[in-house]
Write a structure and sequence with these properties.
heterodimer; A: about 160 residues; Ubiquitin-like (UB roll); DNA polymerase, domain 1; 2 domains; about 15% strand; globular; B: about 725 residues; alpha+beta; seven-stranded mixed sheet; five-stranded mixed sheet; 18 helices; about 30% helix
Chain lengths: ~160, ~725
């Protein structure tokens, strides 16, 4: 079937089996490799991307449900060379180790901050439930708080 | 501190100098010439240190200088998160006299030569390359200066070098400009290395060189690789312990949409298709037949892992511990256990393979570049030189990628269809076909004297194999070493002032693969020994920190251990009392000569153990990158906490379970301590191990804190309160 959606702002149409997980469409058909395969069962969050601004575990999301929607991957999180506040905070805290799970965490965090701009530790515990085997959680928590600060600063600096 | 001037000179035969695509130059050198096995195993047996293992007679390629004045460092070690690429860049930049931004570290593919013949593992990458890399970089810098002197018509001694630019009296040449005009290189004697205190990058918290790529989601991992016209493969894997492949009915899979070919081999069956999903679905339609000898259960495995069963080897003996503990009154005995642990690294195992006639290219995440090449070459009937292994960044290693037979399978599938094939494990296959951390059983015996000091202590440990049976050391480790160094890593008594001590390792062969898991036996052995030390301290009526200090010998290792114990206690504000429902627990370990002490602050919340803060003092000798030493401590503490508090594989009806994250419970954000305080001591003159030693103390530190809160001594991992 033909499926159309916007990915990172670009309109896209694909001829694809509608039951194909969105993850494989993004990685193998659109060649956006930043979204990772971890488990295939929505249990680890490595494949997290945004569908209409909400965090979605794309390994368990059939592409047919993406029809007409706006999809954002880690490649589309920044605007040009300008990193997203979450990415900026990740840089400043030097969070990644192996790095494999990090795009999923950053996408989950960006979605969290759009709903809760200043999350408490409890908000973070309840909402950031991806798996990181290098266990970079300590720096991630610091980076999430830092990103919240950067984001509110950016918002203040923008003309209303 | 100063470094003695090395006396050797790189011989011309051992260097190659070549132009790369017309714009660069490369130098290489082979380093050690002593036989690999003797060096490696001797190092392992003494201190768990593994020397760098370059080949003895093939030129190796280290540096390339580009026209843009960038230096490419071909790393013989892989980057799996431990920060090795950053440390190597710092070390090379300082001796090469370039800015760190001018260095680009890449994985050396086997075709270009500069690979480590053993592995990336054992927390040895920085320590083993510290000396050779500085000498190579310094030699390269001098070679460039000699050429610059010729080109400028001046004496080399008159030149100054900064940021990859050689200057004299207003004239300047970049390294990139110099190398373009070189016809034949002159190789000087290895120059004296700079004083470490003058280094600009070594010793500083330089940001990781791979930071930006990892933050923007750049395609850098084995699983991100693709080749033109690539197909997707899947291999049927057994779900049962000990299963031997008999055959397969593939008829249902043959005609499924997207299937290109079903590939039947004597030892496995796989399928190649046009997409990942088509390959996975076709695999599910294959009915494979396996023979299995029995339905293993967890109870069977637990019954096997018992001190007293299997082959014992005494690995440490001072005084008459056994005689004392067998005959005297008042001996304290305690038993501890640890479960089967999974690696659960996030990037599954797999490879992109392209076999074309008599050559093959394999792109993958591997910790054993050379072994991967040998296995692929052997399977395809090619010479190792005909196989180019292109290592990528690893989506986690932790020892899981110290054997990669999956590369052979991808190569076989590619050969069968004549096209590149990408073939990866799914998560269920990862969990069921892991090379697990072996379960362990420990029996500790100890006796106090009248002054409350330890008169004798003994550690008996039973473990499945770690190093034994590993294809990395085929057939050689067992006769040379006697006991499995991996299993008893961290198992020896580190308190050398005790007059009588003894450690005995009991080997058990399990029916499923057990192998290297980050820090090997350290996690379980330290849990047992340091829990027992706490028990003895309380029985002696001593403060547990002082009790440990009282049993440390007067030598360099003792000094370094004593200092980390004191530093951790001081930084944490150590108090052996429960305050507002929180207690501290203390533990220390020495691994690969790196001592580490930790204090865990713990409470019980809603019937569960909650770790609030961990203070960690570590002495890696010298910290090439203090920020990454910190990062390794933070990650090791939480990974160790995860293994100590939550993780456990079961055996049920012949299967290893669970097969997915979640049911395989691991530490998540909500479980991780909100505070981790790391103190770095540097009480040696060279960098040592960092990536594994901080996994040692955490289990016992938590358990010792729990004892203060509940009065219950937890003797089994994962820790659970009644």
């Amino acid at each position: 079937m033909t499926i159309s959606f916007n990915i990172n702002g670009q309109p896209t149409s694909l001829d694809v089996d509608g039951d194909t997980p969105l993850l494989w469409v993004v990685r193998d058909m659109l060649d956006l490799k930043g979204t990772k395969f971890g488990c295939g069962k929505a249990a680890c969050g490595a494949c997290t991307l945004h569908v209409d601004g909400k965090a979605v575990r794309s390994c368990s999301y059939a592409v047919k449900y993406a029809e007409g929607k706006n999809i954002t991957t880690i490649e589309g999180l920044s605007s040009g060379d300008q990193l997203h506040p979450v990415q900026q905070a990740w840089m400043e805290e030097i969070v990644p180790q192996c790095g494999y799970c990090q795009p999923g965490f950053m996408m989950a965090t960006a979605a969290l901050l759009s709903e809760i701009p200043n999350p408490t530790d409890e908000d973070i515990d309840n909402n950031i439930v991806n798996v990181c085997r290098c266990a970079t959680y300590y720096r991630m928590r610091k980076a999430i708080h830092r990103a919240a600060g950067l984001q509110s600063q950016t918002a203040k600096n923008q003309p209303s | 501190m100063s470094t003695p001037k090395p006396k050797k000179k790189f011989s011309r035969r051992k260097f190659i100098v070549r132009s790369t695509v017309g714009v660069g130059v490369a130098i290489g050198a082979t380093y050690f010439t002593r036989p690999l096995w003797r060096r490696s195993l001797a190092g392992f047996a003494n201190s768990a240190e593994l020397p760098y293992n370059g080949s003895t007679d093939e030129p190796r390629l280290w540096f390339e200088v580009t026209a843009e004045n960038e230096v490419i460092l071909n790393s013989p070690k892989v980057e799996m998160g431990q920060g090795t690429f950053t440390g190597l860049a710092q070390i090379a930049a300082d001796e090469l006299e370039v800015d760190i931004q001018q260095i680009k570290v890449v994985h050396a593919p086997t075709v270009s030569g500069n690979i480590d013949g053993t592995s990336t593992g054992g927390s040895t990458s920085i320590s083993s390359l510290w000396q050779p890399l500085r000498e190579l970089a310094a030699t390269m810098r001098e070679m460039l200066k000699i050429e610059a002197a010729k080109q400028l018509g001046v004496d080399a001694a008159a030149l100054t070098v900064k940021d990859g630019v050689v200057s004299y009296n207003g004239q300047a040449l970049t390294y990139g400009e110099i190398v373009r005009k070189v016809a034949e290189w002159e190789i000087p004697e290895t120059p004296a290395l700079k004083d470490v205190s003058t280094y600009k990058f070594v010793g500083k918290p330089v940001p990781r060189v791979d930071l930006k790529d990892k933050v923007i989601g750049a395609p850098m991992f084995g699983m991100d690789a693709s080749l033109p016209d690539m197909l997707y493969g899947a291999v049927v894997r057994s779900e049962r312990i000990g299963a031997v492949f008999v055959g397969a009915d593939t008829s249902a899979a043959e005609n499924m949409p997207g299937v290109v070919k079903v590939v039947k081999e004597p030892d496995f069956v796989g399928v190649v298709a046009t997409s990942q999903m088509a390959a996975e679905q076709a695999k599910l339609a294959i009915k494979a037949e396996w023979s299995t000898e029995r339905n293993w259960q967890s109870e069977d495995i637990e019954a096997m892992i018992k001190v007293g069963q299997g082959d014992p080897v005494t690995i440490q003996k001072t005084g008459r511990a056994k005689r004392i503990l067998d005959n005297e009154e008042g001996v304290v005995t305690a038993e501890f256990t640890s479960p089967i642990g999974a690696h659960a690294q996030m990037e599954p195992n797999g490879a992109v393979a392209h076999v074309e006639g008599d050559k093959a290219t394999i792109i993958l995440s591997t910790q054993v570049v050379n072994l991967t090449r040998q296995e692929v070459a052997g399977r395809l009937g090619l010479s190792p030189e005909a196989v180019n292994i292109i290592p990528t960044y690893l989506g986690g290693g932790f020892g899981r990628r110290l054997h990669t037979p999956n590369a052979m399978q991808a190569a076989v599938l590619s050969k069968a269809v004549g096209k590149p094939v990408k073939c990866f494990f799914n998560r269920r296959e990862e969990f069921q076909n892991d090379t697990f951390r072996p379960p362990t059983h420990h029996v500790l015996r100890g006796l106090l004297d009248e002054q409350g000091k330890i008169k004798a202590i003994e550690h008996n440990l039973s473990s499945g194999d770690v190093m034994f049976g590993s294809p990395m050391f085929p057939g050689i480790a067992e006769p040379v070493l006697g006991a499995d160094v991996g299993a008893w890593r961290g198992g020896m008594i580190q308190y050398g002032a005790i007059p009588n001590f003894r450690t005995v390792s009991w080997r058990v062969k399990l029916p499923f693969a057990t192998s290297w898991w980050r820090s090997l036996g350290l996690l379980a052995n330290t849990f047992a020994i340091e829990s027992f030390m706490d028990e003895l301290a309380l029985k002696a009526g001593k403060d547990p920190v002082q009790f440990r200090l009282d049993h440390i010998q007067e030598d360099e290792a003792g000094h370094r251990l004593r200092e980390v114990i004191k530093a951790a206690a001081e930084k944490a504000g150590w108090k052996d009392e429960v305050v507002n429902g929180r207690a501290m627990g203390f533990a220390a370990s020495t691994d690969a000569r790196t001592p580490c002490a930790q204090v865990a602050e713990v409470s019980i919340e809603r019937g569960e153990i909650k770790v609030h803060k961990v203070t960690c003092a570590i002495d890696p000798g010298m910290a090439v990158n203090p920020d990454q030493v910190r990062a390794q401590c933070e990650g090791s503490i939480i990974m160790g906490q995860s293994a100590a508090m939550y993780e456990r594989m079961f055996v049920k009806d012949g299967q290893l379970l669970p097969t997915i994250y979640g049911p395989y419970r691991m530490a998540l954000m909500r479980d991780a301590p909100k505070e981790i305080d790391v103190v770095i001591l540097e009480n040696a003159d060279a960098p040592g191990a960092v990536g594994e030693p901080p996994l040692g103390p955490i289990g016992a530190a938590i358990a010792n804190a729990v004892f203060r809160l509940t009065g219950e001594r937890l003797r089994s991992l994962p820790l659970a309160i009644a």
